[in-house]
Sequence to fold (334 residues):
Amino acid sequence: MKRVLVTGGSGFIGFHLIRRLQKENCEIRCFVRPDSVTDQLKMFDVELCYGSLADSAGLIRAANNCDTIFHLAGKIRARKNREFETTNCFGTENLVKAAIQNSTPPIFIYISSLAAAGPSSWEQPKYETDIPCPISAYGKSKLGAEKVVTAVSDRLPCSIVRPGIVFGEADRMSWELFKTIDRLSICPIPGFCDKIYSWIHAADLSELLITVAKSGERITPEAPIGTGIYFAANNDGIRLSEVGKEIGQALGKQRVRIIRCLPLVLFSVSTFYEILKQFSETSSPYDWAKAWESLHHWRCSPEKSQQQLNFSPLASFAERINQTTHWYKEHCWL
Fold:
């Protein structure tokens, strides 16, 4: 990797990826929205390109002469479901078209989501060879973007990485759980039973992304399902109650109580946010789709990346929880 393009570089995962890419001694170009906060990128030697995924000309300029593209940019919250498709599907289509314009097509790594594969069962994690069954508009849009990438894989060397729940320093989504445990010493669990989720720290995800770019399997149009796709997770799942206990220990809590949130409560709260969303210009942090997703298990197997790429997390899950907690405290988030 000599010249790398990262879309969504101003985001949480983008920050960790760029920090890791600095060790590769490559030229890094970041494609970010004009209104993005880029202060944290000033510590890195990066070139900023401004534009949107709807800006075909801007994408062509950004992708020009790049040998590797990491496509992180996307929409995870939206007021209307069609916004997911516009950004995640059509935006990805514009980017791959720009990438193909290069005289030598770059390696294209699309960062998808476990949401594209759909929820798992309690007993069995998701594998790359399983047929995707997304249950939300967001998940369907990420799967749609995967299909866009697959459609051009005869002209563009592509791989797809589907992370589980990504956490780490500067993450605002997982921060809500840390904050709840810190302030109330409780870990809320949606539904009647404990949930199993697959997690990965952003630094470990960044390591995997670079490994896939260097030596990963590529998608081919006629290949069996799962070819060129990798799940990203520290393990094949951990109970949410255990995650709560790990966070509690990192925070010095003697006890963390497990509170079960009944479906009726979840959908009542999400209905409030759905109504609020209709009178606001911003998206909602918790809507019906999020409530429905929270009632499922989200497990994926890291077996393929372990066996094929010899990949393993650089630190244990407990160490990563401690590291993240320390950052939150140091920056006065807790």
User: Anything to note?
Assistant: The radius of gyration is 19 Å. DSSP finds twelve helices and 13 strands in the chain. The CA atoms of residues 63 and 99 lie 6 Å apart. Residues 174-195+238-294 form one domain.
